[in-house]
Fold this sequence. Notes:
- By secondary structure, this protein is an all-alpha fold.
- It has a domain at about 100-130 and about 140-245.
- Helices cover about 70% and strands about 0% of the residues.
- The protein is built from seven helices and two strands, in the order αααααααββ.
- The protein has helices at about 1-20, 25-35, 50-75, 85-125, 140-160, 165-195, 200-230; strands at about 235-240, 255.
- The chain has a two-stranded antiparallel ribbon.
- Helix 4 (about 85-125) runs antiparallel to helix 5 (about 140-160), helix 4 packs parallel to helix 6 (about 165-195) and helix 6 runs antiparallel to helix 7.
- The longest helix has about 45 residues, at about 85-125.
- About 20% of the residues are buried.
Amino acid sequence: MSSSKVRSTTGSQQDGSKRSGTPTGTTGSTRRERELGAGRTPTPAPARVSPFRSRWFIGGAAAVIVLVTAGVVWLNRDTAAPVDPLSQEIVAMQQAEAQRNEKNVGVIGEEIITVQDALLPVMAGLHGPLPTDGSAPVPAAASAVADWKAVIVKAHDDLMGLPSGNSEYNIARNGFTLAVKVLGSSVAAYEAALSATDAGAPALLALAGDLRNQASEAWSVAAIELDLLYNAADKGHLHISLPVLPTGDDGPDTESGH
């Protein structure tokens, strides 16, 4: 009797399963498929982002923005070089030196013209006893020699009183000073020849003439340098000479402009 009930119950369950069309043991999975829909893949739950990683990302982005902004500012910065106090001082010194040199050129030009006017009679007087054109020597008086010496000493002192300047200016100033000193030596040699014996006089006269010629040459070199300074200072040209041979017009030859 019991066995019949069991089989009957089991049979009833199997018949019910067949009627419902649902295999035994698949009820849960079938329900899950109905909920998700047939043939649809389950969507995984979104992963949670760590707060630390979020802060790191925001901080990195901010750093990039700051760098880009700094780069733009740097590219658009004022390209003028910063003011260097030492450079400004050097420029000021150079400007002051240029102004001083320009002033010195005018001063030495005026002084040399004055000295030339004083020395031309000396050169003309020396040509008498020390001729270069083949004429007979004409001895000079002792008083004339004394006057030459006085003129030369004053000219030398005046040139020594000129201010110092740049290299080009100093070359001109020292060249004129040297020329006057050599001319003074020429006059001294001639003075010695006047009181020398007949045997010693010719050598002293030759020496005096040679020194006079050297003085004229040294003057010419200094005059060229002064002319260059005048031209560079936009003062035109200044041609001054100390010729050995007396000429009708030995004054300065000035040309304005270039």
